[in-house]
Amino acid sequence: MEKIAPAGLAEDFDLGKIGLVVEGTKDVRMVCAALDPTLKVVLGAASLGADMLVVHHTPLFTPVTRIVGTTARILKILLEHEINLFVMHTNFDHADGGINDAIADMLELSDRRRMSLGIIGDCHLSLTELIKRLGCGARVYGQVSGFQRVAVVGGSGFQPDLMEEACNLGADLFISSEMKHSTGRLAPLPCIEATHYALESVGMKAISEKMGWTFIDDPPESCLLI
Amino acid sequence: MEKIAPAGLAEDFDLGKIGLVVEGTKDVRMVCAALDPTLKVVLGAASLGADMLVVHHTPLFTPVTRIVGTTARILKILLEHEINLFVMHTNFDHADGGINDAIADMLELSDRRRMSLGIIGDCHLSLTELIKRLGCGARVYGQVSGFQRVAVVGGSGFQPDLMEEACNLGADLFISSEMKHSTGRLAPLPCIEATHYALESVGMKAISEKMGWTFIDDPPESCLLI
Amino acid sequence: MEKIAPAGLAEDFDLGKIGLVVEGTKDVRMVCAALDPTLKVVLGAASLGADMLVVHHTPLFTPVTRIVGTTARILKILLEHEINLFVMHTNFDHADGGINDAIADMLELSDRRRMSLGIIGDCHLSLTELIKRLGCGARVYGQVSGFQRVAVVGGSGFQPDLMEEACNLGADLFISSEMKHSTGRLAPLPCIEATHYALESVGMKAISEKMGWTFIDDPPESCLLI
Amino acid sequence: MEKIAPAGLAEDFDLGKIGLVVEGTKDVRMVCAALDPTLKVVLGAASLGADMLVVHHTPLFTPVTRIVGTTARILKILLEHEINLFVMHTNFDHADGGINDAIADMLELSDRRRMSLGIIGDCHLSLTELIKRLGCGARVYGQVSGFQRVAVVGGSGFQPDLMEEACNLGADLFISSEMKHSTGRLAPLPCIEATHYALESVGMKAISEKMGWTFIDDPPESCLLI
Amino acid sequence: MEKIAPAGLAEDFDLGKIGLVVEGTKDVRMVCAALDPTLKVVLGAASLGADMLVVHHTPLFTPVTRIVGTTARILKILLEHEINLFVMHTNFDHADGGINDAIADMLELSDRRRMSLGIIGDCHLSLTELIKRLGCGARVYGQVSGFQRVAVVGGSGFQPDLMEEACNLGADLFISSEMKHSTGRLAPLPCIEATHYALESVGMKAISEKMGWTFIDDPPESCLLI
Amino acid sequence: MEKIAPAGLAEDFDLGKIGLVVEGTKDVRMVCAALDPTLKVVLGAASLGADMLVVHHTPLFTPVTRIVGTTARILKILLEHEINLFVMHTNFDHADGGINDAIADMLELSDRRRMSLGIIGDCHLSLTELIKRLGCGARVYGQVSGFQRVAVVGGSGFQPDLMEEACNLGADLFISSEMKHSTGRLAPLPCIEATHYALESVGMKAISEKMGWTFIDDPPESCLLI
């Protein structure tokens, strides 16, 4: 696992929150993967006889002193079935072949360059095709009539310094999720706001295919109404 | 102004950031209002001969030691034209006749009750009509087949404790803006994510009509693509 | 449970660490109790078919972001058997009929008075009998030739301010556990250092008898060698 | 400007508080300088048609969330006239040819050596002449009958560690401003307390002459009465 | 002592730093007083056979973990001669008959009113006479041609909020010590900067006379040169 | 002294609390040593005419602003007799020939290896003989039937990470003092809890013999009762 997403690549706020987060059996044969360890996902992993579940988001990001509610139900299933829960978060964001490379592959970015977070590259898709690939519907900020060099950042990537960095690298479009009003007001380039799940699940799906893991898809139930 | 949005209603993080934020002329006759003091808005206020501009969001939320870039341009126009900038933020969110009352009016909520933030009430609009009223397109989370009691919260209101409170008060739909992935995963009821501007600008428009101020509309340029 | 150890009596550092700490079945019939939720204790509770285990010390005092090692094994057993884990800590120390009352009962203290923590009372036992009652062997600091008014504090009670308080209330002997060298040097009265388990387990045993719970004894394996 | 007072020489507490503090025109031809950007100074700069005003003390040392009172009046004049405000503070204290070199020049110090802050050198002036050069009157602490090696520190330089350093370097007189009672009590050598303005304005005057800037003098109105 | 300067009147930063600061004999007959416990003062107290020395400034304001240098020499003399060191600081500033009342007496202020710190009153002395009474020479800020209502604050009283308060109470002159350049620039009324010792020693002298203590005078060796 | 216990070896929490802690005469001829500077110890040092007292524990660990009670009595004797108080704490724990080497010598450990704190080595003593050497009676945790490789840590060494380190280095017994209940519950190997004094005084005794200092023994008055 260390090769896929070296722990040293993680941000400081992930300290103690990646790697083996729930300890199960020592004898790992069947591996599943998903973006989040939701109830549906862990039930699926259990029914598939998984010994390990690899996810992007830990269920214990905020340190806990109580195991109750949904957390208790999820941990019950994992511990009962001795399923190891393994988390790759910001270390997988930064890794070669990680979250952001998978987005870049999906959008066929060429001439890629790694930013401090995310990737920038040339995109030859039409806007219609690009939105179709994202698959979640999107909110577009600013004039996106034409674009060539596109920055993509999985997760909550609409940070002023990241957008600045993208501009300096020649980007004319910035794709990420969870835009804040105050940030959008000051955005220095056109932006496309997709969903967190649409952007990041492709990375878990891609690594699953590569490693022979079984990916369990569980997108939030959502749709756009205009 | 103290009657419209009493300073004592503001959250602690607004301390020193509401009320008179830029000092202009003592002689206030013509008043404009807007959601944000953008460059377009302050230019508009100046061209209208405004003596005061009332806004919801301060341009100086993060304390500054330098006046440069867009901030410098905005302050230049305000100071040059001696336009007072007056901020009503969380105090106007909580006020009677404030931001959340205006949203409730727009959605024709009846049998209203104030929550710790936002308002809950009965809504007899159809989903299609409700989305139309919001006017910004929206992302819907969960099954919104039917609803009766709707919670509305201007700004970034998708907070776990607020949603919990709404459930306890019988809500079957929660409307706010800026949903985070991790929060959406755990939402205890169906949600509609509108834009920050769509929800909050109605409050500034309503108070302007009531007070005889000139409202300057400046929505972010955005659209939904599916 | 709120009557036995009201949450409002807990120290600030116990915030979020008492009450229901691991959530199990809603249908509670059989209750066990112990001082610590050790592996031996939770296995015992499971084999007895317990629906709830009441303990003094939480296994999650330091907030966790990972469930591994002994913690994982303990939580596995609790969750698998749907055993609720209920913690009464400093709230039970302060409660009437709590930890310190049980110690006072064991040492037959009369004319009792509650201190800010612990209890002071008259003791008519001989030193030999007192040590026998404690049942763990003890280290005696200072001259304990005769004594009348004895202060008892369950847990790590050798705090300078508590010892000062005991002196002011006329104590001529102070009984607690986990004496530190620097504190012992400055102790203003003779002290008897028992074990944490010997002092506090009597409180859990006493409440179990009163409530009809099954107390599971699990003293640390230790002995004194001279 | 970077050559005159390299930003890297500034103390940590000046982070974000030096360099371009108020942004004006890009086209800088006429430059003024002063110690403080007082109302009198900025009015003077505006009437002289300045494009930039270089000062030692920022008007925004404490970060602000409101632009009111004197600050609003000063910023109004600067922004209205598009005068850039450029601050050189502790970076100019430490710079070659900076604040402390100018004091040393005024007192004709020879055989100079830079301290961690300030300069030490041989002084051949009489006490009377030295006081006359300072030009502000002065309070003398201790016996200043004769002296040879003099330490000078612009600003509030009566710090115990600086005075210690000066002693170790052989100083027999220490000149700075704003002596505190508790510090004076423990001063390890005779001291002369001049005014902050008298010591630091000479540095701004000297750099103005060198650079062809127009220095605007605005000493605080003060005098000594005995 | 509690009557002279009630501990409850002290500022928070004096917590643990007033009252009995060095413990000597229980049998107190001969009492000395001074502003600071300098080496000269404690030697004087010892030679006078003092059992207690009452001072305004503690020698242990910054908490210490080492007793060396001047501090060691002062403590040696105090402990050797069993002289109690008793500190009255901000509690004596605020007390009736305390530091600020003594200054007001010296300047013959009438119609007095207590400020949050310091006293304001009518003064009929000429400027020349006022300076003479202060006895230390003074630096005058602003135009002091005539004045009637004078605010006096012992210690470092040139605080913006205090000066504001004095203005609101009608003051046309503010007397204190240790003016900072940045504060002086914004002072809303004329100011006279005397020395800390000149202002505060009169309070210790006055209470000594009243209580029959022996006051030991030890002004810093200083003079003004123009 | 720097050779015996280099200051650079001390833990961060000892900053400013080791070395010369009370300053006495410059002329040091007669040196005493002890574990703690108790009243009995400093009186002994004074009666022996000591010029310096070397101890392991500073009397000023918590920074003080008042010199009262026992601290005042101890400092009085030291200052009166001009006895320098020199502290070697964690720097002496880590030093070659320091606290932990002395314990290892007492227990005849061979094939020694230094841990991050403490020493591990082979021990050929019987349990009975080992307890006898410790000389203070001891509480034994776990099964100590046989042992070979023993870790010793002076002071409060029962830290989870230290015990883990000892296990990894092959230890089958861990000797230190001041075991906490929660730590003992999770101890990964058998432990012997001796007294702080018994373990650490041997180090001060050993260095005294080596350096020709007079060691003053002052064990806490304590005994075990079973």
Set down the secondary structure blueprint.
6 copies of one chain form a homohexamer.
Chain A: E1 19-22, E2 31-34, H1 39-47, E3 52-55, H2 69-80, E4 84-87, H3 90-94, H4 99-106, E5 110-114, E6 119-122, H5 127-134, E7 138-141, E8 149-152, H6 160-168, E9 173-177, H7 181-185, E10 191-194, H8 196-211, E11 214-215, E12 222-225
Parallel strand pairs in A: 2-3, 2-11, 3-4, 8-9, 9-10
Antiparallel strand pairs in A: 1-4, 5-6, 6-8, 7-10
Helix pairs in contact in A: 1-2, 4-8
The mean pLDDT of chain A is 96
Largest sheet of chain A: 6 strands, mixed
Taken in chain order, the helices and strands of chain A follow as: EEHEHEHHEEHEEHEHEHEE
- State the strand order across the main sheet of chain A: 5-6-8-9-10-7
Q: Are there runs of chain A of 5+ residues with pLDDT below 50, and where?
A: none
**Largest interface, by Cβ-Cβ below 8 angstroms: which chains and how many residues each?**
A-B, 35 and 35 residues
DSSP strand content of chain A = 15-25%
Shape of chain A: elongated
* Overall strand count of chain A: 12
**Oligomeric status of the shown chains?**
homohexamer
Give the terminus-to-terminus CA distance of chain A.
43 Å
User: Structural class, from helix and strand content of chain A?
Assistant: alpha/beta
Rg calc of chain A: 18 Å
Indicate the percent of residues in helices of chain A. 25-40%
Number of helices of chain A: 8
Written account of the structure:
The structure is a homohexamer of 226-residue chains. By secondary structure, the first copy, chain A, is an alpha/beta fold. In chain A, 32% of the residues lie in helices and 21% in strands. Chain A is built from 8 helices and 12 strands. Chain A has helices spanning 39-47, 69-80, 90-94, 99-106, 127-134, 160-168, 181-185, 196-211; strands spanning 19-22, 31-34, 52-55, 84-87, 110-114, 119-122, 138-141, 149-152, 173-177, 191-194, 214-215, 222-225. In chain A, the strands form 2 sheets. A 6-stranded mixed β-sheet of chain A has the order 5-6-8-9-10-7. A 5-stranded mixed β-sheet of chain A has the order 1-4-3-2-11, with helices on both faces. In chain A, strand 8, helix 6 (160-168) and strand 9 (173-177) form a beta-alpha-beta unit. In chain A, helix 1 (39-47) packs parallel to helix 2 and helix 4 (99-106) packs across helix 8. The interface between C and F is medium-sized, with 35 and 35 residues.
